[in-house]
Amino acid sequence: MKKFFLGAVALAFLSVISCKDSANKANDAADAAGEAIEETAETTTKAVEEIAEKVESAVDGVPNFSDPAVQEYVNSYEEYIAEYTKIVESKDMTAFAGLSQKGQELATKAQDIAGKLTGDDAKKWSDYMTASSKKMQELAQKMAQ
């Protein structure tokens, strides 16, 4: 009976130690998971902030036009400027060469659109194109450096 009792006590003691080890391992795993979640949340927050800044800068100064064709052109031109900016930042000359055709197409389209504008849209167009040209000149200077 003593052997049985001592065996049971020893088994209970080992079970307690084993449970403590398991609890410690579970706590460690929970801590690691919590840290990973925090890191992911920080990374996601930074990415969202960067995207918000890019959207804000792209939308800033872009007027709305009453003519859908003009608005479509302006939206396409904004995409072109964003792509141009990305290429300038990366200094990827191969991508820059591929962008020239899109620039030519937009220039041709701009001539057609400019001839059709009237009133308030003509003023908005002029202001927008002046600001966009300045932006493109600054980017071209960066590319040359």
Tell me briefly what this model is.
With 145 residues, this protein is an all-alpha fold.
Distance between the termini: 91 Å
Q: Number of folding domains?
A: 2
Strand content: under 5%
Largest pleated sheet: none
Stretches with pLDDT under 50, minimum 5 residues:
51-59
Q: Shape from CA axes?
A: elongated
3D architecture notes:
The chain has 145 residues and is mostly helical. The chain folds into 2 domains: 1-60; 64-144, no CATH class. It has 4 helices and no strands.
Blueprint of the fold:
Layout lengths: L1 H58 L8 H23 L2 H22 L4 H26 L1
Helix pairs in contact: 2-3, 2-4
Q: Key terms for this structure?
A:
elongated; 2 domains; mainly alpha; 145 residues; single chain
